[in-house]
């Protein structure tokens, strides 16, 4: 994307348009505040207008035969301009002139010129005013130079004889906080209040509480809030909103909600933003019932829900999987004359896709476009990915064609979704063409796109092509992350190229990448298939010492359990199963079938697997791991291995819990009369 040029407020004059014959007329038409630095602009004027300017008794205009490049850099405030202007009698140099200069240079971010102005003002004993310093503080904030703002704040009194007030204090404090330097902001606040005798006001406390909440020092923020009356500062609605938001982000929702009553008792009335903060916190926690009550409370307090309120509630409902209610709330939002935005539609479409209803998400997109809203890259990538995952490749490709026909320029994420989808459909060569098109369109493929393409070729039995994609990624200097290495290692192991996989493994470790659970499981599977079960177990024990992304999952356990059982090492397999249960990993149907086959074929005499699975169910049930226990019962019923009477009793008790009964009855009524 082209970078927009940033122009200063200095005005450029075409001297041919000024019918003057003397310098006095020139200065009448060109006041100093509008033309602060003519000599510094000489080079620009030469290149732009092909004119040269020499300050003399007459305006000498000459058009050179070619552009002249001037190497001399004039000072930001031209001495000649000061001298000739005052002699002409058309202009009197005063404080306002310097103030105009400060404003112009601050707006353009010309800090060198600002220092020259301050230096001249000091040498001429000019009066410095605080509002000019505040302009410079804001300029330092835009330039991301917070320490320069602090330095200038310290110089205000001693060097420039300008009294500091809470206004300049708050300005510098805000600059530091905007840069995310929260601890530095608190240090600066403490120093100014304790040593420089500047009295804080409500805005100061709001900024400090904001910094504390952002730094996750919520208890200190509450203390600062309670100290406000001692400084003759009454909290306003922004104070309460900031503190409530901090409490919600620390999962202290009840304390945040209680502050709503407190602020009303203190005579501070909440606005929609106050309720939105609390509603957002409750929605993220999944407490939609309390969120709905807060909306009712809004109406009672005379606050009307706005777009943020609706978007927050819709997002919360989608997180809870209550998509029908989210869609009905969207209809109500439209009926209340509020215009849903991309966030609203994107949230609902994403929720539908996660529920396996990508087609419904496409219908929402159509309704969105009918109302004059164009989709964005997030929505398009979500839908394309969802349609492919549901096996609706034709619909996904039709959506892609419509995007291109509309003239929309897909980004890397949308391209990545298309490449991944084509690979899922077993069309890696078509996906490779899409990858090539990305480069032509100026959209560089990322690691995700390359990983999808490699995976597609491996699944298609084209391991050589997958390795070529890996090499192309390296040639384009695309950084290889853990996912890329996992895909390559998994593909090589599946292809029986264990030595190559081991080389890639060592390369990954050498580059400081931590193998994830997929990479570890792939290596363990490759080693077990090669008969090196003990080496696979070494990798497994190494996993246990890694972080959460590398912890073994049910797939890892199943690989090792199957390998041990095939070798007849039943006792070792049972020990590993016990380790699995202790680490909170539930068995699945594959785990159950591994042991059923082993007990039937490897044990002499063969044993009935009913007692084994029955005991496994009881162990899971006693630990309240109902999902895992349900998988065991599912396998038993499929294999006609009837549970014991006491086991059936536990199953019926679990099914007959009041909430589950109501859910089951409601589902029946919907199926019958819905």
TrEMBL record:
Give me the PPR repeat coordinates as residue ranges: 201-235, 236-270, 271-305, 306-340, 341-375, 376-410, 411-445, 446-480, 481-515, 516-550, 553-587
Q: Which UniProt keywords apply?
A: Repeat
Can the keyword Aminoacyl-tRNA synthetase be found in this entry's annotation?
A: no
TM segment ranges: none
Is-annotated flag, keyword DNA damage? Answer: no
Q: Which domain of life is it from?
A: Eukaryota
Which family does the similarity line name?
Belongs to the PPR family. P subfamily.
Q: What is this protein called?
A: Pentatricopeptide repeat-containing protein
Species of the source: Cinchona calisaya
Organism classification, top ranks? Eukaryota, Viridiplantae, Streptophyta, Embryophyta, Tracheophyta
């Amino acid at each position: 994307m082209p970078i927009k040029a940033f122009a200063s407020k200095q005005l450029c004059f075409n001297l041919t348009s000024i019918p003057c014959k003397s310098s006095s007329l020139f200065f009448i038409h060109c006041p100093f505040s509008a033309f602060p630095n003519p000599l510094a602009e000489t080079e620009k004027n030469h290149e732009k207008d092909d004119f040269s300017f020499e300050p003399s008794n007459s305006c000498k205009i000459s058009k050179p035969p070619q552009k002249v490049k001037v190497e001399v850099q004039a000072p930001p405030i031209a001495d000649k301009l000061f001298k000739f202007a005052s002699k002409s009698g058309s202009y009197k140099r005063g404080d306002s002139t310097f103030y105009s200069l400060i404003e112009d240079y601050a707006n353009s971010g010309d800090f060198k010129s600002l220092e020259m102005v301050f230096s001249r003002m000091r040498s001429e004993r000019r009066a410095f005013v605080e509002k000019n310093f505040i302009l410079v503080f804001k300029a330092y904030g835009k330039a991301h130079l917070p320490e320069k703002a602090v330095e200038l704040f310290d110089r205000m009194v001693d060097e420039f004889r300008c009294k500091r007030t809470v206004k300049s204090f708050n300005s510098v404090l805000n600059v530091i906080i905007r840069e995310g330097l929260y601890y530095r902001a608190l240090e600066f606040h403490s120093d100014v209040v304790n040593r420089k005798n500047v009295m804080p006001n409500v805005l100061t406390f709001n900024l400090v509480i904001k910094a504390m909440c952002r730094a996750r020092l919520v208890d200190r923020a509450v203390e600062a809030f309670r100290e406000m009356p001692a400084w003759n500062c009454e909290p306003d609605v922004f104070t309460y909103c900031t503190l409530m938001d901090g409490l919600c982000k620390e999962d202290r929702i009840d304390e945040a909600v209680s502050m709503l009553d407190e602020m009303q008792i203190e005579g501070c009335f909440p606005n929609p933003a106050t309720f939105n903060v609390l509603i957002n916190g409750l929605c993220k926690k999944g407490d939609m019932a309390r969120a709905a009550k807060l909306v009712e409370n809004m109406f009672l307090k005379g606050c009307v829900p706005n777009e943020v309120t609706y978007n927050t509630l819709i997002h919360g409902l989608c997180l809870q999987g209550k998509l029908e209610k989210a869609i009905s709330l969207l209809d109500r939002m439209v009926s209340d004359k509020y215009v849903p935005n991309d966030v609203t539609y994107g949230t609902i479409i994403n929720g539908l896709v996660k529920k396996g209803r990508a087609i419904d998400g496409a219908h929402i997109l159509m309704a969105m476009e009918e109302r004059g809203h164009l989709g964005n890259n997030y929505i398009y990538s979500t839908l394309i990915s969802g349609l492919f995952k549901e096996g609706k490749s034709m619909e996904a490709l039709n959506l892609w064609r419509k995007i291109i026909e509309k003239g929309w320029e897909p980004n890397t994420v949308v391209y990545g979704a298309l490449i991944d989808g084509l690979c899922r459909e077993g069309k890696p060569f078509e996906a490779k063409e899409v990858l090539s098109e990305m480069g032509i369109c100026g959209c560089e493929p990322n690691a995700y796109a390359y990983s999808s393409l490699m995976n597609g070729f491996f699944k298609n039995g084209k391991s050589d092509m997958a390795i070529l994609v890996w090499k192309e990624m390296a040639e384009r200097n695309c950084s290889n992350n853990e996912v890329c290495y996992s895909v390559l290692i998994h593909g090589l192991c599946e292809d029986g190229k264990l030595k190559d996989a081991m080389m890639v493994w060592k390369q990954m470790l050498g580059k400081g990448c931590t193998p994830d659970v997929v990479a570890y499981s792939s290596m363990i599977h490759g080693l077990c298939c090669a008969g090196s079960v003990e080496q696979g177990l070494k990798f497994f024990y190494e996993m246990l010492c890694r972080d959460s992304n590398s912890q073994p999952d049910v797939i890892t356990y199943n690989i090792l359990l199957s390998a041990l059982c095939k070798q007849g090492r039943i006792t070792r397999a049972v020990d590993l199963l016990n380790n699995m249960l202790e680490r909170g990993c539930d068995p699945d149907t594959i785990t159950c079938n591994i042991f059923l086959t082993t007990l039937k074929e490897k044990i002499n005499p063969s044993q009935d697997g009913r007692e084994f699975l029955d005991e496994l169910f009881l162990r899971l049930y006693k630990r309240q791991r109902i999902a895992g226990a349900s998988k065991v019962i599912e396998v038993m019923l499929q294999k006609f291995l009837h549970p014991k009477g006491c086991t059936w009793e536990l199953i019926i008790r679990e099914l007959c819990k009041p909430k589950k009964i109501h859910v089951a009855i409601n589902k029946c009524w919907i199926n019958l009369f819905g």
